Amino acid sequence: MVAEQLTAEKLEEIERKYDPETAFRPTGPIIASIVSVALVAMSLYHFYASGFGLIRELLHRGIYLSFVLGLVFLLFGIRKTTAGELPSKSWFRFDRVAIPDIIFAVLAVASALYLPLLPPEIVSERVGNPSQFDVFMGTILLVLTLEATRRSVGPTLPCIAILFILFALFGPWAPGALKHGGTSWLGLINHLYMTNQGIYGVAIGVMAQYVFLFIVFGVLATRIGLGQLFIDLAMVIAGRYSGGPAKVAIFSSAFMGTISGSSIANTVTTGALTIPAMKRVGYPAHFAGAVEATASTGGQITPPILGAAAFIMVEYLEIPLRDILAAALFPALLHYFGIFIMVHLEAKKLGLRGLRAEELPKAGIVLRQHWLSIIPLAILVYLILSGRTPDFAAVYGIIACVVVGFLNPVNRLTIKDLWNALADGARNTLAVGAAAASVGVVVGVVTLTGVGFRLGYVVVQTATDMGGFVSAIWPLSVFTITQWALFFSLLLIAIACIIMGAGIPTTATYIILVAVAAPALAQLQVEPLVAHFFVFYYGVLADITPPVALAAYAAAGIAGSNPFKTGNTAFRLGIAKALVPFVFVYSPALLLVADGFTWAAFTVTLVGAMLGIACLGAAFSGFLLAPLPAWQRWWTALVSFLFIAPGLQTMAVGLVLLAPVMVLQLRSAKTRRLAESTPAKTV
Question: 490: which residues sit within 8 A by CB, 6+ positions away?
């Protein structure tokens, strides 16, 4: 397949293949019309509720959940369909949708709204003593939530939820520290359905209150030309330099990350342009795909959207969104810096050119055509930084998008475009909404059984045992058992995040793992903000970590490369992201708003991290100023960890140890330049 020949339909098929959240099934015209109206109604309701309405918390969450589950059963079949595959007409289908799915949709809406529509005083009376009908409706909602999640996200998360349910029911038979008193089915449904600790918990509340509006904002901002502005500006900034298209991919993905929190969507959107351009200037296909995938995963860690994680942190940590965004800024920049270094070194090693002047857009024309599209994002960021609530900022950001869209002569918004954008925005929230409800089941079991603290204890105890073993070995004994216990705890949690993130959305991974990680790291005196960011970062890393590197596989589909090879290369390029969380655990000053922040500590940490990431990038690329021999690569890689460890002393030692390699590299680079400038002798 030639990447340049990819059509919009082919790109959509690639996204459907690797992103189960977009694998909507085709329907007939009647169901399609009903779904379209329901999606737009969902967007308008949330716009009104967040901007102008005063709706009870439980009712608001119930309405959101009823929309999500009902639409999931209409839009996702019992099995994933391919693009263009239309279900056959048969007696058990209505308008090409199976009648059982329509029944499931109705039951899901009824069970999701049953409890929220009851008078609050009745609900408070029944908490702890639900009626048989309450248990019946709660059971229906639980089963349909898990099935909706399986259809829209995949089987991994529902299976995890079922394991937690079994753990709650059969606690007396659990091994070791995990043993607990257990609960009955009535007690389980009471906790998961009748309280705000389960299905109607924080996860679904954040989706309904904040995330929905930000996703709609991202769709509208892209529609009015903000996405194209970002891509064109990236071309102007970086296109002319060595290996320019790869650097364009980094900048464009960083810009797109401000309005999109989806790794795969970013990969397909910007990759359609950057991957063919990278191949044209000489990058191997697998490397081109890996660059785009790695850069696109940065969208989930780039302010102001951060996927849904930022808003979950706001609820859990009870701190303003602007503090979360401030904390996320420099770790995100370090991620992109790491990719940039490796791309630059690869371009120098291969001797690749930048884009020619005729291949680049003109900065003046770009700004003249699209400058209006930046206004909604500026308003959004200003309102957040001024201390307004996230939903308030999103509402006025959406209003700005609509106003700019109707007034802008370029990419002018029509009523049909607005309708489609509202529908697409709501449609993009369905899978993550179903996942949030299933995560509520897991979190509910955690709060019911106290398993989070039990698992945290197991993690810390295991890490302490490992630390005791290692600290007895010279020269590793220079570090205390407590220091080693922290390191191994972080390592175990990181591995768990990557494994879980391979099969479920990043936000779901983050919510589940933080229930374990937070208690474990709290025992080791890691502050909550740092613990939350650590888990979140490693959950994101799963998108480029084989064997289930979905963003990398989507990029491979565009590049026409081997998916596994692309995934391995993407992981190598994203190695900085794997190191950055360790940096801010050992030096929280990098997060700006952490306890004990000083500009001196921040500067030392930032400079050290940049030097360490650059050294590690050189080691993995095999090139610095000239090709690196094997021993120099290993030496540079080992030295990089001294820079990453915060402190002037370790940095000074690292510079001293790196000096011999730099001297040899300067000599090799000089010799290389002389060889290239000396004309070859003719025989």
Answer: 521, 534, 581, 582, 585
Distance (Å, whole) CA 529 – CA 649 = 27
Record the tokens describing residue 393, joined without a space. 């900022």
Cβ-defined contacts of 371-374 (< 8 Å, 24+): 371/229, 372/224, 372/225, 372/404, 372/407, 372/408, 372/410, 373/221, 373/224, 373/225, 373/226, 373/229, 373/404, 373/408, 373/411, 374/226, 374/229
Q: What DSSP string runs through 296-324? A: HHGGGGSTTT-TTHHHHHHHHH---HHHH
Task: Please state, rounded to an integer, the average pLDDT across all residues of the chain.
Answer: 84
Of 560, 661, 548, 653, nearest in space to 608 by CA: 653
CB 411 within 8 A of CB 223: yes
Question: Residue 4: its pLDDT value, please?
Answer: 47
Q: CA 308, CA 326: separation in Å to the nearest integer?
A: 16
**Residue 683 above 60 pLDDT?**
no
Q: What is the DSSP letter of 207?
A: I
* Any domain includes 310: no
Residue span of the structural domain in which 117 resides: 3-160+174-199
Q: Kindly state whether residue 327 falls inside one of the protein's structural domains.
A: no
Residue 175: pLDDT over 50? yes
> Out of 128-132, 569-573, 660-664, which region has the weakest mean confidence (pLDDT)?
569-573
How confident is the model over 506-524, as pLDDT tens digits? 778 788 888 777 778 888 8
pLDDT over 70 percentage in the chain: 91
Give me the numbers of helices (H) and strands (E) for the chain, helices first please.
31, 2
Q: If we measure between CA atoms, which residue out of 517, 538, 523 comes closest to residue 582?
A: 538
Residue 510 lies inside a defined structural domain of this protein? no
DSSP character string of 129-160: S--HHHHHHHHHHHHHHHHHHHHHT-SHHHHH
Q: Is residue 658 part of a domain?
A: yes
Number of domains in the chain: 2
Tens-place pLDDT, residues 108-158: 999 999 999 999 999 988 998 899 999 999 999 999 999 999 998 888 889
Report the SS3 class of residue 120. helix
